Amino acid sequence: MKITISIKLGLVLFFTTVMVQPCLAQTSIDSLLNVGNFELYENPNKAINIGIKILNAKECTDEFEIEALLLISTAYSSKRNYEKSLSYATKALNVLPQIYNDAFKVRVYNRIGLQYQQLKMYDNALLYLDKALQIATASKQKENFDKLIGFNYAGRGFIYREQMSCDIAQNYFNKSLYYFKRNLKEPLMNANLSIISYNKGNCFIASNQIDSAKISFNQAIDFSKKIEANSLEAFAYKGLAEVHTSEGNYSLAIKQLTDALKIAEKVGDLVLNEGIYKGLADNYLAVNNHELYHMYVLKYNEIKKQTHDAETKTINQLIVQDDKEASIKIEQQKASALYYRIPLISLIVLLIGLCFFEFLSYKKKYKKLKTDKLNLEK
Amino acid sequence: MGMHKKLLFLLLFFSNITFLFSQKNEEVGVLFQKSEEALFSNPEQCLKITNHIVHNSTTPNELARAYLLLSKSYFTSGKFMLAAENILLANQQAEQSYEKDIYIESLLFSSEIYNFLGLYEVANQQIEKAKKAAQNDKKLEESVKTYLYFNTSDNKHKRYDSNLTNELNHFFLSNGTIQTQLATEYLSQSKFDSALVYFQKSIDNNKANNVGNYWEMITALHFSNYFFAKKEYQNAIDQLNLAIEKGKLFSNDYFQESIYKKLSENYLVTDNIIKYREFNQKAMTAGSNISTELTLATNFIIEQLHKVNEEKIVKAKSFQNNINWILASILSVLLLGWLFMKWLFATRIQYMTDIISYLKLIHNSETKIESNERVLLKSIPKPKEIEELLLTKLTKFETGEKFLNKDMSLALLASQLETNTKYLSEVINKYKGKNFNVYINELRINYIVSKLKTNPMYLNYKVSYLADECGFSSHSSFSTVFKNCTGINPNVFIQFLMKDRNENNKSSAA
C-alpha cells in the first residue's frame, strides 16, 4: 500500500514541474512559483505565503492566479488542512472558465482530481478526472494532450487499484501506457511508464495472473533502465521477486531481492527497503532459513517502525503546530483588542477624574455660595 | 489491595447502569446492558440496540453513553472513521452530562482511539483532561490512576500481580486481554513455557467468563504466534482458522489483515504455494481497506481538531470584542454621567446664585440711594455751579417717574433739563459712573424692583406688563437688562418674592 503511495508521488512530481514550465511570461512570478513548489512539503507555510504574494502581484494573470491558488491548496493539503486545501482548489476552479488554454484546464482538473484521490475521496477524484478527460478529448486546440490523458488514466488506475478493483484498474493502466508511449520523445516518460508497469504487475499478482505479472515487471525494469532510474528499477525487481516467490522459485527471488537491495541502499527509500526486507524474510522462511528469516523480520519491523514513527511524527507536529497557530492568533487578537482597549481605559480613567474634579469644584463653589447666602441672610 | 482496585475498576465502568436503574429508567438500563453484552459477541445486535437508544434518548448522559458504545462497537468492527465520529459525539454529550464518570470514560476511550491512530499528542491531552475532571473526587481519581497504571506497557507484570487476572480490560480493544498481552510479551522474550501458561489462562478465562468472540479471536491470533515460533505450523494454522471463525461477525480488516498475513506465512513455510497466494492476496485487500480506513479516520480527527481551534479563535475574538464593547458602554455611561453632573451642578449653583442675587437685590435697593449720595459727595468736591444745578435736576429726575417714558432718550432728557446732550452725557458718565443707557435702565429696574417689593399686586402681573410698566419696549430686552443689573432673572425674582411673601403670611398667620 505504502509502495503505491510513494510511486504515485513520483508521478505527481514529474507533472508538477511540467505544469509550471509553460508559463514563461513573467520570470519573477515563475521563479516564485518554483520556489513555492519546492517548499511545498518541507515548509508549507512558506509556500502559502509565496502563493498569497503571487495573488497580490500586479502582473498576476489568470493562469498565474490559478497556479498560485493550487500552490496554496497543495500546501494546505500537506499541512493536512483539507478544508482550506479544497476551498482554494475551488477558488482555482472558479477562475478556470476565464482561461482559453484547454491544456491548462486539463492540467488543473487532473491535479485537483489527484488531490482528492490522496484524500481517499474517490468519487470527487473521479468527477474531476472525468472533467479533465472531457475537455482533453473535445478540445479543438492544437496542443498535444497525450501526456495529460495518460496522466488522467493513470490516476483512475490508482483509484481502482486502491479499491482493489484490479480488473478495472488494469484497463486504465493500459490506456495510460498507450498515451505515455506516444510521447516517448520525452525521456521522463520512461519513468512514468515504469511506474505504471510496476503497478500493473502488482495488480496481476493480486488477481493471481502470475505470468502477466512477470511480463509487466520486466517491462518496468526495461523502462527504468532507459533513464537509469535506480529506485524504479529496484521496485520492479522487488515485484519480480514476488512473482518468483509465488511460483515457489525462492532462490531466484532471493537473488533478485538481494540485487534490488544493493540498488535500494544507494537510494535510501524507506518504503522500498521495507518491501525488500519483507520479501527476503518471506523467502528465507520458505527455504527454512530461520536465522536469516529472523534477521530480515527484525529489519523489516525496524524500518516499518521508522516509517510509522515518521508518519505519526509529522501528523503530531501538524496538530501541535495547528494548536500553536491558534494560540498565536488568539494572542494577536488579544493584542489588537488591546489596541482599542488602552485608549478606552484611559478615557474612562480621564472621565472618572473629570467627574471627581467636577464634584470637588462644585462642592467648593457651593460652600462659598452658602456662606455668602448665610452672610446675606444675617 | 488488589481486590480494592478491581472493585474501583468495575465501578468506573458499570456505575452508569446503576445510575440509570436508580432513575427508574429501567427499560433503557436493560437495553444498555443487552447492548454491552453484545459488544464483543454480536456487533450487529449491539449497533442495532444502541442506535435505538440514540434515537430515543434525550439526556446527554444517555446519549454520551450510547455514542461511546457505538464508538466501541465500530472500533471492534474496524470501522475507525465511524468510531472516531462517535467518540467525538460522546465527548460532546458527556461534557454536558452531570455524570463525571461517563465524561472520563469517553475521554479515556478517545485517547485509546487517538493512540491507535498514532495521534499521541491529542491522546495525552485527553488523558490530562480526564485527570483534571477526576480531581476532587477520590473514587474517580483512583480509577483514572488505575487505568493509566494498567495502560502503561511497563506495568504488565505488576498488573498481573495485582490479581486482575479475571478482569477484562475494555480499553485494550486492539491488544487483547491482559493475559494475552502478557503471554505475547513472554513470547517476544522467547520464554515459551510462560507464554504457553498465560495463553492457556487467557483461553480458560475467555471460556469461563464468556467474554465474547472478539477477545477469543485476538487470543487465537496471538496464540498462533506461539506455534509458529515453535515451528508447529499446523497448530498455528488451526489457531488462525479459529481466529477467522471467531472474527467473522466483526469483519475487522485490521485483524483480518494480520490473520491472513500469518496464514500466508505458515502456508509458505509448509510449501503450500496455492494457499500462500490466496491468503497473501486476501491480506493485501484487507491491508488496502484498512489503510483507507485509517487515513479517513485520521483526516477526520485532524479536521475536527482544526475546527475546534477555529472555534476557539472565534470565541476568543468575540470575548475580546465583548470586553471592548463593555468598556465602550461604560465609557458612554460615564460620559453621560459627567454631562449630567455638569448640568446638575450648574443648575444648583445657578439656583444658589439666584438666591444670593435676590438677597443682594433686597439689601442693595435699600442702600442704593446711600451709596449714590456717597459717590455724589465724593466725586464732586467742588462742583461748578452748572454742574451742581444739573445734578440737582438729575436727582429730581431720579426720584420722579419720567424715566418710565418709553421715548426717553439722551436728547429728550437734555431738552427737559435745558442742556445739551453732550454735556449731559459727560456729567452722567462723570458722576454716575455709567453711560446714559445703563443709567436709565438701572433707574427703571430699581423702580420696578421697589414696586415688586412694596406692592404685592405687581407680583401677579405678567413680565411683559412689567416691562411695559417700567418703559421697556419688549419683554426680552427687559429680561436681559434685569438680569444684567441684578444677576437674576425677573421671573425667578418674582418667584422668590412670592415664596417669601407666602412664608411671611404663614408665619404671621401662625
In short:
The complex is a heterodimer of chains A (378) and B (510). Chain A has 378 residues and is mainly alpha-helical.
Textual characterization of the structure:
The complex is a heterodimer of chains A (378) and B (510). Chain A is an all-alpha fold. Among the domains of chain A are: 1-143, Tetratricopeptide repeat domain (Serine Threonine Protein Phosphatase 5, Tetratricopeptide repeat, Alpha Horseshoe), CATH 1.25.40.10; 229-341, Serine Threonine Protein Phosphatase 5, Tetratricopeptide repeat (Alpha Horseshoe), CATH 1.25.40. Chain A is 84% helix and 0% strand. Chain A has 15 helices and no strands. Chain A has helices at residues 2-20, 27-39, 44-56, 62-78, 82-95, 102-118, 122-138, 146-162, 166-181, 188-206, 210-226, 230-246, 250-267, 270-286, 290-377. Chain A starts with a helix and ends with a helix. Residues 1-25 of chain A have low confidence and may be disordered. By secondary structure, chain B is mostly helical. Chain B has a domain at 380-509: Arc Repressor Mutant, subunit A (Orthogonal Bundle), CATH 1.10.10. Chain B has helices at residues 2-22, 26-38, 43-56, 60-76, 80-96, 100-116, 120-134, 138-151, 156-161, 178-188, 192-209, 213-229, 233-247, 253-269, 273-379, 385-399, 410-416, 421-432, 436-454, 463-469, 475-486, 490-509. Chain B starts with a helix and ends with a helix. Chains A and B meet through helix 14 and helix 15 of A and helix 7, helix 14 and helix 15 of B.
